[in-house]
């Protein structure tokens, strides 16, 4: 008996691209999470006092605090709130999209190149923008290299390198999530007890690591674009 494919049902038999349906689901989950966390924070007697135990509010504060500490270590204190907002949203979106593939009958939207390359292009535009915003015209000088008589060669290398970054970001996330989802489906179909638990644990680890690696590389690109080198 074939497992139920809820994405196929929600896409009306494929009339709506499955990756679009999956993306809508992820967006809905994140919107609900954000609204609940905001409501909990607004209703707190003292917002400075954290909740006891694990709640939506404490989970959101943990995520924001962790992302702020990570971004501060890599990108510095300047414009920290802007970086946390962008990279935190990116991390949560990819993380939830990855974990969606662990739900029986669902597929991770990040196993489709349409989404992964779209995210990669967004990161590409973002770090190029940050480079011009922070360095101005000096950002273009970084494409010429330190030696003027080699600038014609260095600029070619730099253009190729920068254009390859979104491609590598997108293909890495797609390939890992596509392979992880297929392996999980195969082994859960062949073995019904105990063994699937191991692959779900490994799958969860892959989901977290891939979201982290994507955001880490995007941060590194912003750091390179915003500093003279």
- The low-pLDDT segments are none
The total of helices stands at 8
From the N-terminal CA to the C-terminal CA, the straight-line distance is: 59 Å
Averaged pLDDT: 85
Helix share, percent: over 70%
Number of domains: 1
Class inferred from helices and paired strands: mainly alpha
Strand residue percentage: under 5%
**Could you give the count of β-strands?**
0
Largest sheet: none
The ordered H/E elements are HHHHHHHH
Based on CA inertia axes, which overall geometry fits?
Answer: globular
Radius of gyration: 21 Å
SSE blueprint:
Layout: H1 6-10, H2 18-42, H3 56-75, H4 80-100, H5 113-135, H6 138-141, H7 151-190, H8 195-226
Helix pairs in contact: 2-3, 2-4, 3-4, 4-8, 5-7, 5-8, 7-8
Task: Please describe what this structure looks like.
With 229 residues, this protein is an all-alpha fold. It contains 8 helices and no strands. The longest helix is centred in the C-terminal third of the chain and has 40 residues. The relative contact order is 0.12.
Task: Give a quick precis of the structure.
With 229 residues, the chain is mostly helical. Helices cover 74% and strands 0% of the residues.
Features:
229 residues, 8 helices, mainly alpha
């Amino acid at each position: 008996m074939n497992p139920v494919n809820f994405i196929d049902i929600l896409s009306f038999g494929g009339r709506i691209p499955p990756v679009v349906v999956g993306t809508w689901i992820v967006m809905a989950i994140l919107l609900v999470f954000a609204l609940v966390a905001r409501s909990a924070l607004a209703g707190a007697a003292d917002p400075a006092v954290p909740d006891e135990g694990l709640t939506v509010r404490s989970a959101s504060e943990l995520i924001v605090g962790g992302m702020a500490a990570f971004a501060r270590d890599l990108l510095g204190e300047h414009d920290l709130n802007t970086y946390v907002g962008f990279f935190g949203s990116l991390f949560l979106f990819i993380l939830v999209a990855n974990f969606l593939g662990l739900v029986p009958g669902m597929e991770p939207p990040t196993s489709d190149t349409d989404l992964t390359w779209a995210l990669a292009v967004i990161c590409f535009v973002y770090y190029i923008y940050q480079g011009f915003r922070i360095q101005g015209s000096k950002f273009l000088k970084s494409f010429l290299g330190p030696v003027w008589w080699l600038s014609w060669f260095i600029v070619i290398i730099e253009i190729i390198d920068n254009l390859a970054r979104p491609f590598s970001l997108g293909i890495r996330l797609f390939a890992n999530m596509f392979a992880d989802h297929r392996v999980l489906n195969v082994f859960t179909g062949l073995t019904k007890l105990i063994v699937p638990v191991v692959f779900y644990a490994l799958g969860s680890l892959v989901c977290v690591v891939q979201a982290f690696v994507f955001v880490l590389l995007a941060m590194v690109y912003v750091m390179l674009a915003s500093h003279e080198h």
